[in-house]
Amino acid sequence: MSRHPEKVMNMVVHAAEDKKAMNVVVLDLQKISLVADYYVICHGNSDVQVQSITTEIRKQANERGIPVKGIEGFDSARWVLIDLGDVVIHVFHRDEREYYNIERLWSDAKVVEIV
User: Fold this and answer.
1) pLDDT, mean of residues 16-29
2) What's the CA gap between 55 and 44, in Å, rounded?
3) pLDDT for residue 8 is more than 70
4) Is the full-model pTM beyond 0.85?
């Protein structure tokens, strides 16, 4: 698999969905931020599910040779940030997602249709 951001983003979405991630949203940041090309945002309904989603994304990235630059928040499983370079993933616990509502913070970003 190449490391094109769009392909990485699709891999992340499918890995999250494989672990039953809820309300997966992809924001296209290419024209509004230097931080990343895409944010993938989703949530799990328990600490175990948040960790399971995170583990699956890391596993799929490793299998494809996509470097995982960092993972923060795995132990507490309330808000896990996974940095794949051009694609940054936010895996929330349901309660934290509602509280932080980061989709609102990036309201200028275009929402990508997930296929």
Assistant:
1) 96
2) 13
3) yes
4) yes
The CA distances from residue 103 to 41, 64, 68, 78, in Å, are: 8, 28, 23, 17
Axis crossing angle, helix 47-63 with helix 5-18, rounded to the nearest 10: 140
What the block records as the tokens of 70 is 């960092």
Buried b (16+ CB within 10 A) or exposed e, 46-64: eeebbbbbbebbbebbeee
Q: Which residue has the tokens 């309660």?
A: 95
pLDDT number for residue 3? 59
In eight-state DSSP terms, residue 45 is: S
Residues forming a β-bridge with 38:
28, 87
**Average confidence (pLDDT) over 11-22:** 97
Question: Which residues 6+ apart lie within 8 Å of 98 measured at CB?
Answer: none
What pLDDT, on a 0 to 100 scale, did the predictor assign at position 2?
A: 43
Closest of 93, 100, 27, 6 to residue 54, by C-alpha: 93
